[in-house]
User: Fold this.
Amino acid sequence: MTPARDPVFEVGPRLAIGALLQGAAWADFATVRDAVGAGDSVISKHARSLEDAGYLEVRKGAVGRRPRTWFRLTGPGRSALESHLAWLTSLSGVLEGTDADLPS
Assistant:
């Protein structure tokens, strides 16, 4: 995997949603909302963006008579998230050793 910046994960809580879902088979809407700490409309908006990018699968159904929504990362979504996280990690080494160049 090559570290690569992915602008999809740089807007709103999309990175948090991806990070949460990378360790789950499926997560229900309420769990994602509560873990990310955002409102329903914010989660809906960013979930739609992730879905449009092909990174998120959305399943709708019901538990009893109550409608439910579940999310999971797609294969390409997992790959894109891993690549983006690797890119973020690689940034920490960019300035390594440059402190010695600062004046006293």
